[in-house]
Amino acid sequence: MSIFPVRSRLGTGYESKGRVLSEWIALLADDCRWPLKRLVLVSLLMACSASIALGTDIDLRAALDNAREVSYTQNWRDAQVLLDELAPLIDQADVREFTDFHLLEARHLALQDRSDEALNRADMLLDLDLEADQLLQVRQFSANIAVLLRDYELAFDHLLNALMLESELDDPAAALGTYNMASYLFGRVDEHDQAIEYGERALALAQVSDDPNEACIARQRLSPVFKWAGMTERAEAEYREAIRVCLAVGNRLFAGVLQHGLADLLRREGRPEEAVAFAAEAVDALTDSGFVLGEFEARLARVEAEFDLGLTSPERDEEFGVLQAYFNERRLWDQLARLEALLARRAESRGDPDQALIHLRAYFDAREQFLGRDRAMRLAYLQVAFGLRLKEQQIDLLEENARLSRIEAETAAQQRRARSIILLLSLLLAAALAIALARAFRARRHFQNLARHDRLSGLANHGWFFERAEELLNESEKTGRPLFLVIADIDRFKAVNDRYGHHVGDQVLGQVSRRLREVFPEALVGRIGGEEFGVLLTATDVNSVVHDVEQFRRTAPSSTRAGDPAVTVSFGIAAFQRGDTLDVLRERADKALYQAKVAGRDRYIVASASHQADR
After folding, report:
1. What do you get for the CA distance between the two ends of the chain, in Å?
2. Average pLDDT, integer, range 391-405
3. Among 10, 177, 451, 615, which has the highest number of CB atoms less than 10 A from its own CB?
4. How buried is residue 129: exposed, middle or buried, by Cβ count under 10 Å (0-12/13-18/19+)?
């Protein structure tokens, strides 16, 4: 049975490239369900097909620019398709193209609610020797992702570094993204005048930019600042104009974020009917754009406004549970506090004071967690503000240091002042050393992660897998928790490499790796050989493990295409028995895998003391 097809990569023979692209064009053009805006993707593929027909190389720079345009003005999923086709070429690309590729992929990870992975990708880029303009882009991106993660200390750290990079750039427009983020972050700490100043500076640069999308982004950052400043009429006008600008340039993602912000403003102003309409539009836009976090925040704004209107239904009650689980899992305390306050009001309106009290307590718990983050954010702001003053007044500080030598001979009061200044400078030096130490620890963790994981699949490598497996076996021996080892091997993998090339073989490995992570999210998963994978997991019994293996075998990938090689996987499953060593357990799983291969492949064998199953 075929588990999933594999998309061919650009980088094989010209004939196969042309055939693959022609199939893509036919599929896209014939499918009437695709929106017209995706015809841009068809045009791009036709251009690539023409290039291949002429026997020329793909213009990687132009392809990346097109992918970025699709990502920002249409749908990031379509752009990811283009990036997947470029992936085999990136390792041979220069640093600029390598960085642009991974920044765009990191953006797509963030939109999928995988912000931790997006931030890790940006950290990887910061280890490279980047030119000032690209280093600034990575800092700007990292600050944005840190905001999504509510890690405001990290966001301010990246913002400060970005602001300090401006002096190294001749192009003032390069700082546009920094000003946008500064506007948002200064607004969050109630420094509204400074936030508006940065926002208006960004908007002025955006309006003379060659990219019409920049004005949409600048207005999206500036609009909430007026709301936080209590400038309600100005905020509403800015939100409406920003929505108009973003829709005009086709940026439905940012339009959805703005519609959510306007819905929240209108609800707070006692206009729930309008708020419901804008929140519903925001949910649709953010769902279509694939921005998961934004979608859930907009759904919260919608249920708040619906409650204000007295709208109730079983579907709305179910929505509360979905939102509560999502915000709890991601520790989004600000959103969870709003939801718990709403649930308390709902319970009170239904005459259930006990339930209202439970939600009220949950509200205070979430609120306390949020306030802790808020305090950390304000402390981070003070550090940034001090850093900015330090940057702007370097000459003044040098003169002050010279003056300190004369102050030492003055009165006792002046001497105390001098000691205070010296203490402040010592604290600044200590803070700088602490930051340097933290970065060193972060770099150490990064390189440790590289040493433990297989580069192609992203899974644990052979050494790290069996090191962790030994620890887990010892824990199982002590606790008695059932433990199972699954050895998976891709069937006839050499034939795939021989027929389709190593690029396709690498893609097969990558897809199998992603599927294993999806099916076994709580397990230790590693690539322990060329096309061999290991999965070590706890489960109630072997039937649970078999169920997961069957799910892997029966679930097709999200994208298929005619002409792709069919790939199957064989499995050997062994249960840990008290007294087993890791070598013994692996030997039983290997034997079961061998039996699965001998029995015809594309199946699993469960090895045990009493029986074995063949599927």
Report:
1. 11
2. 55
3. 177
4. exposed
Q: Are 297 and 279 in contact (CB under 8 A)?
A: no
Which segment of 331-335, 443-447, 469-473 scores lowest on mean pLDDT?
Answer: 443-447
Q: Which two tokens stand for residue 357?
A: 């009290």
* C-beta of residue 302 within 8 angstroms of C-beta of residue 314: no
Asked if 452 and 467 count as a contact pair (C-beta separation under 8 A), the reply is: no
Burial class (CB in 10 A: 0-12, 13-18, 19+), 269: middle
- Alpha carbon 478 to chain centroid distance? 37
Has residue 55 got a pLDDT over 50?
A: no
Query: 549 vs 21, 520, 596, 603, CA distance in Å?
Result: 34, 9, 13, 9
C-alpha–C-alpha distance, residues 37 and 387, integer Å:
45
- CB contact at 8 A, 257 and 286: yes
Question: Residue 401: what pLDDT?
Answer: 61
Structure tokens at 4: 């999933």
Angstrom distances, CA of residue 580 to CA of 470, 479, 584, 588: 11, 14, 6, 10
Reported pTM: 0.50
Bridge partners (DSSP) listed for residue 570: 489
* Secondary structure class of 281 (helix, strand, coil): helix
Is 563 in contact with 24 (CB distance < 8 Å)?
Answer: no
Q: Is pLDDT at 7 greater than 80 in this prediction?
A: no
pLDDT at res. 24? 47
The one-letter amino acid code at 280 reads A
| Tokens read off for 285 | 């836009």
CA–CA separation, 386 and 371 (whole Å): 23
d(CA 290, CA 269): 29
Q: In this structure, how many other beta carbons lie within 10 angstroms of the beta carbon of residue 205? A: 20
Measured CA to CA in angstroms, residue 278 lies from 3, 43, 299, 342, 608 at distances of: 43, 34, 11, 19, 59
Residue-wise pLDDT for 239-291, tens only, equals 999 999 999 988 888 999 999 999 999 999 999 999 999 999 999 998 988 88
Q: Considering only CA atoms, which of 324, 318, 326 is closest in space to residue 340?
A: 324
pLDDT digits (tens, 9 = 90+) for 278-329: 999 999 998 988 888 889 999 999 999 988 998 877 777 788 889 989 888 9
User: pLDDT class for 13, splitting at 50, 70, 90?
Assistant: very low
In angstroms, the CA 380 to CA 377 distance is: 5
Q: Which pairing describes strands 604-607 and 569-575: parallel, antiparallel, or unpaired?
A: parallel
pLDDT tens-digit readout, 311-324: 877 777 788 889 98
Nearest to 580 by CA among 468, 487, 484, 461: 484
pLDDT of residue 11: 36
pLDDT at 558: 54
Which residue do the tokens 């791009």 mark? 44
- pLDDT band at residue 569 under the 50/70/90 scheme: very high
Residue 562 Cα to chain centre, angstroms: 31
Return mean pLDDT, the chain. 81
Q: How many CA atoms lie within 13 A of 18 on its CB side?
A: 10
Provide long-range contacts, Cβ within 8 A and 24+ apart, for 364-368: 366/333, 366/334, 366/336, 366/337, 366/340, 367/333, 367/337
pLDDT at 387: 58
3-state DSSP: the chain helix, strand, coil percent, rounded to 5? 75, 5, 20
Instruction: Name residues whose C-beta falls within 8 Å of residue 27's C-beta, 6 or more positions apart in sequence.
Output: 561
